[in-house]
Amino acid sequence: MPVYLDWLTDQPTTQQTSDLRKLLQDAPDAWNVPDCPEDYVAIMAGDVAATVALGIFNGRIVALCELQRSDQGLHIERILVREATRARTVATQLVHRLSQWADKEHATLLIRDEGERLNQLLAFGFQKHGDLWIRRN
Q1: How far apart are CA 31 and CA 77, in angstroms?
Q2: What does UniProt give as the signal peptide span (predicted)?
Q3: What is the pLDDT of residues 7-29, one digit of tens each?
């Protein structure tokens, strides 16, 4: 199941809106995201430091990754994968595609530490620095 990288724009297509609706329904309650994809897009578009990477499979959105820009680079805040595809390494592939993009753009990616669970980030070139995992180009 190859996943490709795309970016959410403030004008998603009808298909993207439909895909986002399904994806947002799978979000944990703690995310407090709106059920309406149009509201989600408006919220993200209103935050000038935020950007959303999309994981695409067969032309459909199967995952998203919220990123926040800072002086250090792009912080990977959270990743959401459609429940139907969670066992298919979609999140791993999305991080891989983001890493490839970061290499091309000479961007730094950061992930806040959540303990030993994130040691697999070493395979993507991330290094642990305090409470952050950082991938520099």
Answers
A1: 11
A2: none
A3: 988 888 889 989 988 888 888 88
Give me the amino acid identity at 88.
R
Which band of pLDDT confidence, cut at 50, 70 and 90, is reported for residue 98?
Answer: very high
| Cβ-contact 56, 13 below 8 angstroms | no
pTM of the model: 0.82
Sheet containing strand 109-112, strands side by side: 4-7, 50-57, 60-69, 74-81, 109-112, 132-135, 127-129
CA distances from 90 to 45, 47, 57, 71, 79 (A): 25, 26, 9, 28, 10
Structure tokens at 60: 């459909």
Q: Residue 54's pLDDT is what?
A: 94
For the domain covering 4-135, report its CATH number: 3.40.630.30
CB atoms within 10 A of CB 69: 14
Cα(137)–Cα(134) distance, integer angstroms: 10
